[in-house]
Amino acid sequence: MLSGARFMPLKEAVAIMDRLRTKGVGHITFIGGEPTIHPDFHRIARAARLLGYTVQVTTDGTGLADASRAAGVLADIDELCLSVHWHNEALAREVTRFDSAFSDTEAAFENIKRFGRLRLFMCHSVICSLNLAAVPDICEYVFSKARPGVLMLSQLIPWGRGRSSYDSLTVSMTDIVRVFPPVKRLLDVNGARLLISGIPLCVLGGWGRFSNDLGFSPRVVLERGKVGAEEEVLSFKKSLVPPLNRIKTRECASCALFEVCAGVFPDYLKKYGVSELQPVSARSAGRLLRETTYVRENSCPG
After folding, report:
1. Of the options 3.30.1490, 3.40.50, 3.40.1130, 3.20.20, the CATH number for the domain spanning 10-298
2. DSSP 180-211
3. What are the beta bridge partners of residue 27?
4. What is the pTM of this model?
5. What is the DSSP string of 49-106?
6. What angle do CA 217, 151, 162 make, to 5 degrees?
7. What is the 3-state secondary structure (H, E, C) of 215-228?
8. Which of 58, 81, 248, 291 is a Cys-bridge partner for 263, taking CB atoms 3.0 to 4.6 Å apart?
């Protein structure tokens, strides 16, 4: 939207989904930006359902805050990943700069409870300098509103505002790992699973068994938008690892998990360097892979 790109027309979206369906694609995830603000999103979701897709949506809840709109959209969604990066109005306003962010989240939770018939419900929190100290409270808030089967915690991705303010918003991976123990205890009480995104396996250590890298499903990512001053283009990218522009460093070369770990964000390296990256031995890697509890079918984009 900020680049001037228009919404993908309904006719084009349906044609793309139809073409990929004939090639054997059976699972589709709508992401953004925010997919639910597309004026024809309910028609796109319905078309995906009629074509036989399993339909997943990743959303901040904006388009699900209105009950009538949510009822129509949720009827055609099988799997939902709701982004929740705050637990009160003050933090929501600080993170988004929108006065309605928290009330939209509250309304989305209520409408999901009323209208959702989901096979899988996930919640997702991106950890940054604004909410790091509040992560356990955010998890408490999520479970006070719903019972998601999966909670995903992610390192800040250097995209959009996350890139323009990366130096002030990002926090060290070591500090992120420190919040996992209280969060995991809360998830165990509520019967939910932990999923971690964006952090190299060597930094996660024993928490690596919850890494999205180990269960990532190969996929095709389609995006329409402008590149600089160029005309709008539709890009197709095949991804065998999470498509978040993470890279491998010289330290990664001798790591036994080189093939399954997606690496680290280049922007992160510019700020924090490579001191946290320690190659994993073959013995430790084998133990980690045997202990992995992540289920591939429950993959969440990120």
Report:
1. 3.20.20
2. HHHHHHHHHHTT-EEEEESS-HHHHGGGGGGB
3. 54
4. 0.89
5. HHTT-EEEEEE-SGGGSSHHHHHHHHTT-SEEEEE---SSHHHHHHHH--TTHHHHHH
6. 80
7. HCCCEEEEEEECCC
8. 248
The two most distant CA atoms of the chain are separated, in Å, by: 55
How deeply is 291 buried, as exposed, middle or buried, from its count of CB atoms within 10 A (0-12, 13-18, 19+)?
A: exposed
pLDDT for the residue 302: 40
* Residues 156 and 128 sit within 8 Å (Cβ to Cβ): yes
For residues 199 and 206, is the Cβ–Cβ distance under 8 A? no
The torsion defined by the Cα of 156, 296, 73 and 33, in degrees rounded to 10, comes to 20
Is residue 73 within 8 A of residue 64, CB to CB? The reply is yes
Q: What's the pLDDT score for residue 233?
A: 73
Please give the backbone phi and psi of residue 134, each rounded to the nearest 5 degrees, phi first: -100, 5
Neighbours of 100 (CB within 10 A): 14
Going from N- to C-terminal start, the domains of the chain cover: 10-298
Q: Which residues pair with 124 in a beta bridge?
A: 83, 152
Q: Give CA 137 to chain center in angstroms.
A: 19
- Separation CA 271–CA 171 (nearest Å): 10
d(CA 243, CA 194): 20
Contact 100, 69 (CB under 8 A): no
